[in-house]
Design the sequence.
């Protein structure tokens, strides 16, 4: 795994460098990476279908680099079940505010979610999603690429339930 760790470290370093590029080069580089990722995801999914669960399990057990790759793309994983499991740690918080997050589906690392209850239309839901739900998926769902969120189109915008913090600014002159 030492070689794999070195490769991953260098990859992250290069991604940081690309972040500093000016547009349109930065966007083009990230689009290229997304297309390479999509190609790998597609081919590995097909490979997993051909090999079957037993062979995938054997490969995972025998080779840590192959296990990393299969896990990174969720090959042989029930993605919906994995996404639901990854969200369990944040559901208590969401429920405590009268909200609900439901997994509608998960395929090729894209998790489709529905916000309902007090989450739907809540002005703080973007923060909840970014800091809670998306982090839980990144940390606990192998192969997570992004999430797509559906909200109740009829929900009206409202502040989060509970006490609202007072915004303190500079003293008027």
Sequence:
């Amino acid at each position: 795994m030492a070689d794999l760790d070195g490769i991953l470290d260098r990859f992250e370093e290069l991604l940081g460098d690309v972040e500093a590029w000016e547009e349109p080069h930065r966007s083009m580089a990230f689009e290229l990476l997304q297309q390479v990722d999509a190609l790998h995801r597609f081919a590995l999914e097909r490979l997993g279908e051909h090999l079957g669960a037993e062979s995938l399990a054997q490969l995972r057990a025998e080779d840590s680099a192959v296990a990393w790759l299969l896990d990174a793309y969720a090959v042989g994983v029930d993605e919906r079940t994995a996404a639901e499991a990854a969200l369990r740690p944040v559901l208590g918080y969401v429920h405590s505010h009268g909200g609900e997050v439901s997994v509608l589906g998960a395929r090729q690392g894209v998790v489709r979610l529905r916000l309902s209850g007090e989450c739907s239309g809540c002005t703080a839901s973007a923060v909840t999603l970014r800091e809670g739900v998306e982090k839980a998926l990144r940390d606990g769902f192998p192969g997570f690429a992004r999430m797509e969120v559906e909200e109740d189109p009829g929900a009206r915008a409202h502040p989060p339930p509970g006490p609202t913090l007072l915004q303190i600014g500079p003293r008027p002159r």
User: Anything to note?
Assistant: Strands lie at 99-107, 110-117, 146-151. The chain has a mean pLDDT of 84.
